[in-house]
Structure formats: C-alpha cells, structure tokens
Amino acid sequence: MRIVIERGDLLRALGHVTSVVERRTTIPILSNVLIRANGNMLEFKATDLEREVIEQAPATITTPGAITVPAHMLHDIVRKLPDGSQVELTRDAERDRVTLTSGHSRFALQTQPAEDFPDLAAGEMSHTFEVGASDLKRLIDKTRFAISTEETRYYLNGIFLHVASTGNEPTLRAVATDGHRLAQVELPRPSGSDGMPGVIIPRKTVNELHRLIEDGGTTVSIGVSPAKIRFETGTVTLTSKLIDGTFPDYGRVIPQANDKELKVSNALFMNAVDRVSTIASERGRAVKLNITGDKLVLSVSNPEGGSATEELDVEYGSSPLEIGFNARYLLDIAGQLEGESAVFKLADPGAPTMVRDSADESALYVLMPMRV
Amino acid sequence: MAETLCRDCTELAEPDDGPAGPVLACPICGSTRIVSHPELETLAIAHIDCDAFYASVEKRDNPALRDVPLIVGGTSGRGVVTTACYIARRFGVRSAMPMFQAQELCPRATVIPPDMAKYRRVSVGIRAIFEAATEVIEPVSLDEAYLDLSHDNLLGDVPAAQALALIARRVEREIGITVSIGFSANKFLAKLASEMLKPRGFSIIGQREARKVLAPMAVSKINGVGTVTARRLTATGLETIGDLQRLSEAELVARLGKFGRRLSMFARGEDDRPVTPHRAAKSISAETTFRTNMASTAELVEVARPLCDRVATALERKGKAGGTVVVKLKTADFRIITRNRRLPHPTQRASVLLTAARPLIEAEADGRFFRLLGIGVDHLCPATAADPPTLFGEEG
Fold first, then answer.
1. Contact B389 A152 (CB under 8 A)
2. pTM, full prediction
3. How many beta-carbon pairs below 8 A join chains A and B?
4. Buried-most residue among A77, A168, B133, B223 (CB within 10 A)?
C-alpha cells in the first residue's frame, strides 16, 4: 500500500473516526484505525465494537491495500504537521510497519493486519429515510440532557427514537428520560419511516452523531433495523448497535390535565434559579417555587449553608401553589427553551409538571417535583 | 480548709477543719461520700463514664442477672467481649477480649448478645440529664461524654461540682445505672480522673497537682499512646509519664515527630482541645467479621444485604441520606480496602445501597479471601433530598 493524501483531508477524516476509539482497551486492535486504499478513495474505519465510523477521503493511490495503525497516534502526528502539507503513507509489509513521510518528517508506525479488524456487520436495514441535519441535531440537543447515566437502568441510557402521532400528524419522535425528568421532541414523520421499530440509541452514539452532524452534509440518511442503526451524512457513516431493552411506557407520565399555567420569562427564570441555588451546595437540593397571584418566589434553604430567595413577576391565574424541583433539572430544561417564555403546567406538589417552550410546539418536558 | 462536696445530698460546704483534722462527713447530711479539693470551685471540665454500661443496663432489666458474672458480647466463634460486669472483671475478663478466652477465665459467666437499640435508648435518657446541666456536651460514645461546665455554659443555678453530683444522683435514680465522674481542668485530665475510682466514682485532678499525679502513671495512660508507641517509649527507657516530664518538648518531638508535642503537653497535664458539642456524623456504616473467611461475590453480597439494611435503618433514624456508598473489605492478611461510588441521588434505601455496593464488591472479589465486610455511606445530607420521587414509580 502506498498513498499520498493532503494533510487537511487526512486530519478531517481522522477527526471523525478516532473519537470512537477508546483510549484504553483490552483488545489491542481496537486502538487502531483501519485504512483501506482502493480506486482513488481512501477509507478510514474505527470501532469500539458497539459502533463504528467509516469515512471516505480523496487520495492519490499508487498501490492499493489495507492496514491498521494506532489511531490516536496517527491523529496526533497529522495534527502536528504543517497546514497544506502532503502526507505519504507506505506499508512496509516485511517489517510490519507503515511509514509516514511529510516534508522532512518521517515516522514508522506499528501495524496490525486489516483482516483482524472487527466488522460490525450492519446487515440489512428494514427502514431507511432522510431527515434534515439541523432537524436531527435539534432532536438530539433537546433530549440528550435527560438521558439516564444509571447503568442499572440500561434501557434509559439512550434516546428512544420511534414513530408516533400528535393529533392527526404522524411524527418521528425522540424521547429521553432518567426517571426524574423527561424530554420529548418530534418532527413530521419522514417518508420511509412508517412502521419502523422503536429503537433506543445509546448515549455514546448520540454524542458521536451530534459531532458528525456538525460538519456533515445538510441531510442525514438513517437506516434502522431491530438491532442496529446507521447514519450517513456527507462522506461519513456511523453504524451503531442499539440498546436491547424496553423503553418504559412514557406516555402515562406525560400530564394531560394539568390546569394551572405559569408563564415566566425564561431568561429571568434561569438567572434567578441559578442565583438562589448557589446556596445549595449538595447536589439534588430543591428549589422551592411559591406561586401566588402574579408573584413567583424562588427559595432555597440549606441547613449548613444559609438560605436564598428571589421574587419574579409571572403570569398565573390559578390557586396558590408551593412546589419544589431539583435546581439542576430546572436549569437543564430551561436551557433547552428557545422562546421568550417558559410555560409550566402544574397540578399539585406531588404530580409531574409539564414545561413547554413558547417558541416550539414540538418539544415538551416533564419534571417530577421533589419533596420540600 | 477546702471546699467540700457531698455526693449524697449534693450540697457544697466549706467546713472548718475539726480538731482531729479534715472533716470526714458532710456537715449537712452526715454522709461520708464527700469530695474535698482546693480547686473544686475553679475546675470546669468533666468526663462522665457509665460503669460497665451494657452489662449494667442488662442487670437493671433482669434482676436475676444482678449477682452473677455477666458478659455482653458476640457469642459466635470469633465474638469478642463488649462489656464485662464488675463481677466478671474479677475473673480477669476485659473488654475486647476474645469470647472463648473470657469463657475460659470465667466459665460460670452468663453471656448475652448486645441489644444496641436498647442501649441507645438508655443513652438518650442519660444525655437528657447531662443537657439539663450544660449545653456543651461532647458525646464520645453511648456511655461516655465530656461536659464543659464553665460558668457561661451552666444551665442550672448551681456550681459545676454540684451540677455533677446532681447528674450522678439523677442517673442512678432515674436511669438505674451508675456513672463515674472525672472532674478537672481539661479533657485529658478529666478522662484520667474518671478512671481512677470506678465504679460510682468521683475523682478530681487539680491543675496544680497534675504533674505530681501523672508522674507515676504508665505512659500508656495517655490518650493516643497505643501498644506500639508504648513499646517504643518503654524500649527507650520511658515508662512513666514522669519520665516524659523530664524531657523537653523538643526532645520528644525529635523522638516521636508531631505527636511528641502533644505528648509533652499531656505529660505536663495540659490539653487545649475544647469540648466540642454535636460532632455531626460524617458517615454511617455497619460492618461484620465473618465466622470463616470468604471469597465469592455471591457470599459477600449476601453478607452485604443485612449490612445495607442496618445502614438504611440508621440513616432513617438520624433523618439523613447518604450520597456515596462505601464498601470496606479486610483481606485474610488484614489489609483494608475501601472503595466508594457516588450515588445519582442521596438515598435512605437499603436496596439502592446494595445495588451500588454490588459492583464494588464484584471488582474486588478476584479470588482473594476476606475476613470482614463493611457497608457505609458518606456525603450525608438531610433526608428531604433522599430518593426523589420518580416519574415511573419505584421501578422507574
């Protein structure tokens, strides 16, 4: 194998694939990136056995071939090469080395054979459809904060992507929850997705996808099968295993009849919650919301730290209510809202509360109150 | 002419010495249980220790046990003596002694397992009596506390010495057990004093006589001098506190490092540690030593289960929740391993503790044998933050 590639193209490709490569791994070859030279395209592939990323980049290929080299090391080398330089990779089969030369620099990298590199074997996708890259990014942005990190509830460690309906509108819906808060965002259902199985996309894949969309194409092609999901955008393909579990029946925790509506300026609300929660040193301490008439009083009391209160003008037309929430959860949700106002739909201090974005009908958030 | 305290009528008097020397009886009630000391009015720090606490409580509750040697402690093969009553002590039985050895020394002894819940209840009652005297109480354990009876802290309208006599009398009458009191100028001396005359003692070490009183005592009497340090000191010819008194602080620091400074102070009868009330618990734990060493995860987890229950019960009782789970293991060769994991939410639930502890145990159970397992919680916070309600209910 002998190829020449422009440093910028190589850097971009490695940037996409190496982030799935674990820094520490018990299987040595998983530290490597597979480079396959064929025609006039170079293919890069990396995997952690749960997901794989494949990237194509143009290159001048003198001798085709395939080999694996340490991914992070190669990435670091290429990053340090001067902008605009040409990089030549040559495989020395006898000495199990790949030689990288660029300008006056010369590196010899250890290799492992391409045949040993694991393949995720994506198989056939039962459903394929396209969504706008910005739409997909929005689905992720507004839900991933609610993904559970508790390993014991593995079935909550991802985003549940499935087809649903709101009113009479068929939708593609993303839901994430950690059991304490829930985020739901949807898109008009893309053609080709009808009847697709509901899938739980692991958090790490979600984060990888988010990164890839940032500098991918304008659309993302999604292929779904009961066990795997594949995203293709621009020159990159991400294939991932799915979480093998049953997502809970989240519909039953989305309040349907919360009739107490509180409308508050989201920016003012966020700042105020952030300020009063300074007092709460321990995680998980509650912010108390005391709502009467047109006033919302936020308060935090910490037996070891002191107390804080702040008053806000709000729109509220129901009977007075006192309710507590985890400060961080409130901030997480408020941080997703695009509109001027946050709209809280409340029932009582022990019941799930819904939060809506005044500028985005397609997103909703549910938050379980704390005892105060 | 010294101030005299009567431990029966609790009155203070300042009797003139009679022609036959110092008074031997209370001029008010005639009792001979009197304490005289020139510094009686100026001392303020007390150490109060219940006499053979667990055994005394058991004897109080079961009069049939009153006149027999009684040992409270673990009855299993590896059990140790928690408390021996004064009759059993005459046979040489001591706290922390392996039970088999205690039973060899005193085969007639009745052995009963400790009932911690009961002792805790009794302790609360005793604490309440202390609290009538001063706000500044530093509990050391269920049966032991330091009290600061400085004038500004006193709650009753009697002086410190009299308040102590009242405490001793109330504990006897209302709780039904006896205490020994050490009264002095600081915690170190007060603790030594309380040990001087047990049971039902009341001893005073004045600041002025401290050096003289300490001089003949063994170095091991000093708080913090364990067997190892004592052996080290004895090896260099330092056997009594008097030997230490003859060395300068610098010499002691040179020999023992930072601890030498404290030792030098103690040897002179000085101690600047304040009585610190409400030492809020930073962690709560429960542990157990196995009958036979074990290695398998499954066995260890089964041992962990009741320990988690105990921690959860203690958390509930104290109105606290734990933010971090701590697993402690002691290997067969006595190495102690601790591993911890932060919880997603503070908890009071045994099931949450066990779920978090299990992987920590699994990671250590690599074939080695262990002799002890402990489960604890750290990062305590108020119970209101515990186990926040979930959208999906318990199993959510």
1. no
2. 0.67
3. 55
4. B133
